[in-house]
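I'll show a typical protein example:
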Amino acid sequence: MDSTGTNFAPETGATAIDTPDAPDLVTVPTRQGLEAVDIIRRGAGLTAPGVGPVLHDGSGGTLGFLVPPGTADAWDLPGSACTQTNGRGMRFGDAVSPTAGGTGWLLPPEAVGPVTDPAVLRAALGEAARLIEAADNCR
């Protein structure tokens, strides 16, 4: 399955992942994703693990959360997509900050640790959607 809206082309000097244990990628609209990052960070360590690496696309339209391999097989949250990366072009070790027109790490792997737990992400995305809907209805 190909990823949607996110470019994983390796850069010179980057270490590409090419293993069966490569993470899957959950993509969501940026606004919802940023809310979810905040929600997960507020609850990290209390009842759930923290947020893992997050990619931000150059157009500003989506965020991508790295999740454990196999997550894409059962992911069905409306408004999001989960794709298998199979390690295609994923790079760790070279933190790339988002640049105008480019894709990069919002939260690089070395800054946040392991991938995001899919159950924690699903709950945070649901809460984020409710918060956004409530905020939009107050206008």
The first strand starts at residue 15 and ends at 16. The chain has three helices and seven strands.
